[in-house]
Amino acid sequence: MLGRRLRRSGQSLPSNMTIAQYLDNIARRYAQGNATEHTFRGDLQQLIESLVPDIRATNEPKRQSCGAPDYILTRKEIEIGYVEAKDIGDRDLDGHKKTGNKEQFDRYKAALPNLLFTDYLDFRLYRDGQFVTSIAIGEVTEKGIRPLPDNFARFENLVKDFCTYVGQTIKSPKKLAEMMAGKARLLSDVIERALLSDEDNKEDSTLKAQLQAF
Question: Which of 101, 106, 110, 146 is most enclosed, with most CB atoms within 10 A?
Answer without folding.
Answer: 101
